[in-house]
Amino acid sequence: MGAMTLGGGLVSAVTATVLAATVSAGHLAAHGSDLARAPSVTARPLAGAGEWAWPLAPEPDVLARFAAPDPSWLPGHRGVDLAAGVRQVVLSPTAGVVSFSGVLAGRGVVVVAHPGGLRSTFEPVVDGPPVGSPVAAGAPIGMVGPTPGHCAPATCLHWGVLRGRTYLDPLEFVVRAPVVLLPLR
């Protein structure tokens, strides 16, 4: 099982998941977050180590797919755009620790660091938890913000996944290949 850094110490992913209970609606309300007043969302339990789930519920439509640039400095689409509504709750796709929560280029951004060196990025997101907050898989990490993005006039959530400085296709983490049975010989 992987380990991650939290507050300068090393903790297991299971410990981080357990600690995530401290980022509750009561905690968010005490810090003035509108997320505490959002419709109730129950965190999805971890089905198994390393499993990921969609960051929106119910499973959203994909408005724009990942398009890796080649070479990496050329234009591309470094994530996926998911159909969303303004103020819709954004969920952590797997356990991790919030490594950034703030405004970049006029948009609210939340980044969650996951075990194994992966990071999830989300925008536009408002009311994100403070940096250093552990989050369980399926725990709320903010709400879709009203800032128009490249999906305008539609509202969407942009979800990116990185390993180091390399962008990966987020759909590879949530879309399961169909099971195909082959004949025995």
From TrEMBL:
Residues 1-20 form the signal peptide. Gene3D superfamilies: Glucose Permease (Domain IIA). InterPro entries: Dup_hybrid_motif, M23ase_b-sheet_dom. CDD domains: M23_peptidase. It comes from the Bacteria. Keywords: Signal. Residues 76-170 form the M23ase beta-sheet core domain. This is Peptidase M23. The lineage of its organism: Bacteria, Bacillati, Actinomycetota, Actinomycetes, Micrococcales.
